[in-house]
Amino acid sequence: MALEIERKFLVKNDAFKNEALKKQKIIQGFLSSVPERTVRIRVIENLGYITIKGIGNASGVSRFEWEKEIEVEEALNLLKICEPGVIDKTRYYIKSDNHTFEVDEFYGENNGLIIAEIELISENETFTKPEWLGKEVTGITKYYNSSLVKNPYKLW
Amino acid sequence: MALEIERKFLVKNDAFKNEALKKQKIIQGFLSSVPERTVRIRVIENLGYITIKGIGNASGVSRFEWEKEIEVEEALNLLKICEPGVIDKTRYYIKSDNHTFEVDEFYGENNGLIIAEIELISENETFTKPEWLGKEVTGITKYYNSSLVKNPYKLW
């Protein structure tokens, strides 16, 4: 149980892929995509997770978050009763000074969308911006994965 | 992960209390009360649980269910972001032949409502009906705890 402090950005080009330390296939669905209480089921490679998030504060930077690892078979069964629409993406991990950017490249209904996230210790913590980092979209709910299920990028 | 097979009944009188082997205080809220995918947070005495249920089949007897025990502090924090309205009840456990009835006496907005549940191995399994057992309400969604949050007994 913790407050999650993170900032989100669009990405200008593919250069981040050359800097990636690793990448993972992620499939996820939502049991609840209501912003005040999202409940997410996720499969990352052969691991399963359930994650619950509250709504962000005014700046959208801090969100209440709770996560537990669960059996991948359980996660796959829970995905079956999730809301219609599933997020399918590859996550790239890119080191930048003492931070790690997580860059999500979306497929399917969200094909063409790429979002970079950085987790911070405090809302005011500074960090180096790589040249491929684009416009900040922190707190804009249409970029939440829970929103992308109902209103995917190709409909924007 | 399992199919939960259970039948629900109203209760005619207080006689069940004399037969109870134990009773527990239960507080619970819902992160999602959508019948297709309810996500329940529960505190029973000093234990916490997260439970996910799918919608019932046509008869309402079988429902997909997944449950994990979690820290009680985590459960109390998750209750804070649940949908408005919380269920407060005492559960009585009553042995009857080789089955156990769970009888819930509700308080607060649902004061006056008492529901007995019995879990079965199959939909056709028979069982002895105690004299205090009333009308069957299996599959009637307004008796689901997830419905009682939004449309409590005192409004019926």
TrEMBL record, chains A, B:
InterPro entries given in the database record: CYTH-like_dom_sf (IPR033469), CYTH_domain (IPR023577), NeuTTM/CthTTM-like (IPR012042)
Domain CYTH intervals: 2-150
Record-annotated membrane-spanning stretches: none
Pfam families in UniProt: CYTH
Record-linked SUPFAM superfamilies: CYTH-like phosphatases
Listed name of the protein: CYTH domain-containing protein
Originating species: Aureibaculum marinum
